[in-house]
Amino acid sequence: MIDFDAPEPLYVQIADDLQRRIAADEIGRRLPGVRTIAETYGVAHATAAHAVQELSQRGIVKTTPGRGTFVQRPAPEQAQPDGD
Length: 84
Hints:
Helices cover 42% and strands 10% of the residues. By secondary structure, the protein is mainly alpha-helical. It is globular, with a radius of gyration of 16 Å. 17% of the residues are buried.
């Protein structure tokens, strides 16, 4: 999961793992809450919040106040004409 002794910051490791889990469809449309993320990874609330902020900066999730943090699914590519 994460390596507490690695030189890479914990919040980046958590964001990377969450991004991997999102890509593998292990996480649905709504990201778990910061408290749940902190408990899952055994880190402080602030570290978990920083990981969510990192995902937001990457364009992976979007937080809507009062509703939660949601995975941003890429829009389906529009069909290209065949040229026929």
